[in-house]
# Entry
Amino acid sequence: MVINEVKEEFKGFLLGSQSPERYSAVIIALDRLGGKGTLGEVAKVVKALIGEAPESRVYEILNRLVNMGFIERIDDEYILPRDAPNRKGMLMALREVISQR
# Structure
């Protein structure tokens, strides 16, 4: 099933990153913003979620997620996958990673 494949791929990516909490917070922020947001909007939500996250670090995380193909960037907005299986798989991975910590 596509959802499980995406979940496992994204979970592996998160666990292999230096900061699973920050990456998770960035994706959660985009989800809370309705699936898309500018750097400033995402950084503000991330800061509310985890307390500390310089905008420059959020920028690095967003761009790495774009480069890895997990999210898109169109003009000034970062966008979660529009298709439900990819989006749901990513959010399921986040829940698993967060619950393990």
